[in-house]
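Reproducibility note. Readers wishing to regenerate the assembly model reported in the main text can use the exact inputs given here. Chain order matters: entities are listed in the order in which they were concatenated for prediction.
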Amino acid sequence: MNQIEIKGITKIFGETIALRNVTIGIAENRIYGLLGRNGAGKTTLLNLMTNKLFPTAGEILIDGQNVQENDQALSRVYCMAETNLYPENMKCRAAFDWSREFYPKFDRNYADQLAILFGLDTTKKIRSLSTGYQSIFKMIIALACQAEILLLDEPVLGLDANHRDLFYRELLSNYSDNPKTIVISTHLIEEAADLLEEVIILKEGEVLLVDHVENLLSRGYTLSGTSALVESYIKDKHVLAVESFGGLKTAYLLDDQKREGLQPGLEITKLDLQKMFIHLTNA
Amino acid sequence: MKLQSITKYQLSESKKSLLIFYGIMFTILLLTTSSFNLFGSGTAEVRGTEMASAIFIFVIGLNSFRSNFLFSQANGVSRRTQFKGFLLSILMIAGVMAVIDTIYTNVFSALVPYLSFFSMIYGESYLPGSAPLSILIDGLLWSFFLYALFAVLGYFINLVYYRSNLFMKLIVSIVPPVFLFILLPYLAFIYPAISDGILSLINLFFGIDKTLNPYRAMVSFSLFTLLFATGSYLLMRKAPIK
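Running the prediction on these inputs yields the following structure tokens for the assembly.
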């Protein structure tokens, strides 16, 4: 049974349809990647899941409870928003104290340890933090609050490579110590790919694909060879994209057909998640 | 649980401003008392400092929505709970301010020639033999209901702005002042009946028409507090984050 049920969600802002009839089931204690190009509706969906916005149609349930105006359901979720929702003149350590008030399982010692690990000065006011440190501040609250469901909207925004690496490692360690449902919305697919178990791809407000990452990767591949051979091979297959270089062709495919009996002159290589995403959302 | 937390948070947000405000008020009390003692009061008199408190709590109401709303949203608090938290916290603040002001005005009136706003309006309704405690309690309750109304009015105005687009913000900013300060005085000047009607309504609202009745004012304040609170809730129940 799914922990979160997103049923027929449509969200319209004025004349813009941000989400159109989105239906997704999110299973408990899995790590999901919520992927999509800019404007695909990722942030809108996360905001709807935490009742920061109201849907035009449809409903979102957490273990059967509608999230709308539901303190009980909402207290099980922590959403690390892309924008800062904390008072700008609040000090980081005061924000940690208040987080414990709203999330009673908030681990203050762990938050302090993470602050030292990431070099966050908790005596500073939130407004004085750089973009990267604002992300670190919000990410520390997300990791320490011990909510059952974590929604992370662009969690590594503004972080340098070292901090991003540290974040991915901490997130995995946190997940293995206390399994939880995590949904990460990110544009850095290549970096996050190793974390993800499931993937949800949105395109122009609609669900393009929901699948296990392993399953998806096993179905995707790149085929290279002479134009004639490639054309003949891909005839009855699910082709994502084709690129030509002189007399050579490269095709990006997504299908379950067996790859045995490959003609000489054709070469198959694996397709990584980022490439697959690019070709899926470009198509 | 969340109601208690958000109420506590909203109270803590106003604590600093309250301390500064009363710091200033007590400084004024000390300076006025000292100057009256040094130079004598002559014909000078201090009046109605409760209006400063009413304006202060109005500003607290004005500043109580946006930041608290975003913070509540960050911490998984529903709009309904946040609204209940606001009402609880503002009623507590109004109560504390009414008590402080009652003590303050009584201390003040013992030191310098002072007349509270309440005494200015309803003083004559209390006979010289009236129990001082009843005047004290009536004054305190009157201040409490007045402060609650001012706070909720501030909150309501802020919510109207929050929910409005640019065009509506312009309408809301221009139409009421133009109506209240230009059109209405002009109409009242041309048609004296309008001016008489407005005066009757004000007298009715404050309970100062035939007899001086502070309880009617308390009922009026409560009804309008309820009206603006209902309006605020209707505006915030579907408020999106901006």
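We highlight two features of this model. The first helix of chain B runs from residue 2 to 39. Chain B touches chain A at residues 1-2, 5, 8-9, 13, 67, 70-71, 73-81, 237-238, 240-241 (CB under 8 Å).
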